[in-house]
## 1
Amino acid sequence: MDEEEDGKDWKSDVNVEIMAEWFCTNCIDSNPDDESCCGQCGEHRNSGILEQGYLASRDLPEKANDMEQRKDMSDSEIKLHLTFPPLWTPQTDAASTAIGFDERMLLHSEVQTKSHPHPERPDRLRAIMGGLSAAGLFSGLCCMIPSREATLAELEWVHSHSHVEAVEATSLHEASYFGRDTYANNYSALAARLAAGTCIDLMTAIVKGQILNGFALVRPPGHHALSATAMGFCLHNNAALAAKAALSAGAKKVMIIDWDVHHGNGTQEIFDSDSSVLYVSLHRHQAGFFYPGTGAASEVGIKDGEGFSVNIPWPCGGIGDEDYLFAFQNVIMPIVEQFAPDATIISAGFDAAKGDPLGGCQVTPSGYAHMTQLLYSLMKGKLLVVLEGGYNLRSISASAAAVLKVLLGVSPGEIPPSWQPTFAGLLAVSEACVIQSRYWKIDRMSLLNMQMLLSAAETKFKENKNDPRQPVSGPQAEDQPQG
Ligand code: Q9C
Ligand code: ZN
């Protein structure tokens, strides 16, 4: 008897040791039980993020998020809890910015069987909606576009029939998987149809001039979804479907610019041989060792689409605002000015943001605002922003707010002239420039300038312990007298 109890005690001690960790609500990193703040992002264990303060969102109670329990709720009880009710204005007009969102996209979540929470979680949209609302960006400024499920025929604009059927089939199961990291539950197919339909309708409204621009706050994300495969947390390719919608609403040339930290292999594949859709991506590549491994600068499109894929592959992590803006100024803007799109979609992942647990990069809300502003100026405001990845709740809500502010016409001002790329950034941008100059006019002077910067930086690079993240100093900066 005594022995048995001793045995139990010993066993439960071990369990306590194993269980003694908590997962940060903000960045999902695991922390030992005796720490009160997240070692990764600094968030307090009991900060109440999502329940109170800056990120708090007034959304449905748990009960209403559960479709089964919801059947027992009266309509008026549900309406009482609808997210942001006074701010949803159904009318649209040509000067307006529209938000696409549907709370049913929160029902897509991983049935918890693993010890670690999945980064692509419903809280992402709760945090963004809460952050936009707290920043005062909703009331009176934005309108909400009614959400709609994409039809199966629309999904087949970019996906195979068997892919659409495979995603639909997941609604019959409590939990299913496409590979190891792409989950589905009973509501995932519904959420994916809503995400796609919302992007299609926003794009159509923009092309028809019913709204100026739009922000699709959707999940599951889309840019890894291939024509026949769900992967990388993505079920249907929302941005690709929006591009097809733009073409069928009368646009002749569509551009998708993808600043998610991962390469949008799905979007690139779907339009690989299509010259009517220009795909531009900046992503962490690491010579193919960063997920999903595609997106080398040499991937430029095939057949009729040759020259209509532009890849800017960062060789390492730690890339920030100055490299992103350098890429915009030196490759992206020159190419997109020549392409002259009728419609532009931003595949806006916020996982290159500072603090993201997957991306390991350094982009700030101001960096996102400047990128948006450059495209806003080119497109006279006509932009569709589609959420892709981004897994630090504070980073994504601040970044989304910064982007939305630009969509609403608030300019972030001039890009600071002191911004200069790092050696790694310069390397990627000049490689992309050289390759793309086969298809697009790249200013001879800026090519030459980059080569000069590069050879100067190479010397410095070797002197400074080969750190590719050090800023390069341009000839101007060096020539300037001190003081
Ligand atoms: N070692 C988006 O951001 N990670 N998807 C796999 C394998 C998958 C990211 C890691 C990351 C997918 C939309
Ligand atoms: Zn991503």
## 2
Amino acid sequence: MTTITANLKKSAKKMPLKGMMDNVMEQFNSAADHINLHPNIRKILSITNNEVLVNFPVKMDNGDVEIFTGYRVQHNNALGPYKGGLRYHPTVDLDAARALAMWMTWKTSLAGLPYGGGKGGIKIDPSKYSESELERITRRFTFALADNIGPEHDIPAPDVNTNSQTMAWIADTYMSTRPPAQRTANQHVVTGKPDGSGGLEGRDRATGFGVYLTIKFWAEKNKVSLDDKTFIVQGFGNVGYWAAHFLEKDGAKLVAVQDAHGSIKNAKGINVEDLFNYTKVNNGSIVDFPNSKLVDKKDFFTLDCDILIPAALGNQITKENAPKIKAKLIAEGANGPTNVDGEAILLERGIAIIPDILCNSGGVIGSYFEWLQNRNGEIWHLEEVMEKLSKKLKGSFDKVFDYSERQAIDMRTAAFCIAIERIEKAYVQRGIFP
Ligand code: NAD
């Protein structure tokens, strides 16, 4: 063994795998270098404003008490209240919450919303708990967060393993613990609520619809049709399902899907609605869907397809699988699915990436509409919501695409530059207190 190889092997052993925070910081720093961001503003944006960690007890169905750990990280609020999801997953920790909160700051800024960025959740495998336990866990978590969230301060939304029901429990708990005269006025403490409880028609599909739209806009710019294009999706939850639903409606063909239970493929096509209905009667799992073949987890990303949509967790596309990916376009439905090493390989290979902070921003734009609707005492309808969402996303997409062409940089760096420049402007205008 040569000394160089031996040293490389030694350092590879010592080097811990990059966490999500390492990735978002590298993405931030490369955009900050590109725009020559003022060092003082770089310092401010490199760190989170507040980090809340709560340990709280919950009574289980059998009478035992279990202690849970929850997080809410607030990265930056220069442009408005903190905004971002709550995730229930065993991988939730401070590093993940910090990184995801930071991505939210760039996402809301890029979308031109009056929000900052926050994120949080509970370190938990929700599949191990009953519905009534999850309700008590959610309500007690909301109580523990207390005034660290609020409709004009920090507004959570659904994320992995949380949904409109989770948001309804949070809203109800938050409102019930306010002084009587303030209760109903606080409905917009969370977005992504059910239609009947202040939710927005279409918020359920907003993220996946946005993923589809950004793919469509990309195809238009590159003068290709979506008809008969094949796509694969990792994650068949809220984002993955709705993105697949709209792509299929536009003529594209779903040929493989992966979820937490396994991976399936069918080169002739997988009917999206049939698969969705199948998961409803198969404990939420896609495995053993009729006419599909099982795929080894490690081979999933390397399957033949035109478009790859990661819509599950972060750090999925890495230097291990990036060299073997066959897709020509990656549309990041998930937050942080491609790490910086994986991205360098993809760009080198000429594979286009629609970055997460643009690709999945339909969700937070939908959340903003819901917040406005609640704040103004209005009720918006589906058609109007989808139209406004399309218009807003088209504006963001064009801005990022044009910036990247003009400056000859990749779309992620372009999106970060636009987002950071907007926040920089706010700091320059306001100065630093005192
Ligand atoms: P979800 O809980 O509805 O669905 C998650 C899906 O991922 C499920 O199908 C699950 O089985 C699958 N999954 C979980 N672990 C997996 C693994 N190790 N390998 C493969 N599949 C796995 O969550 P969601 O709301 O659809 O969120 C998915 C991603 O999109 C997350 O990264 C989230 O941060 C991001 N996102 C969500 C929204 C939103 O509005 N829900 C908005 C923007 C971004």
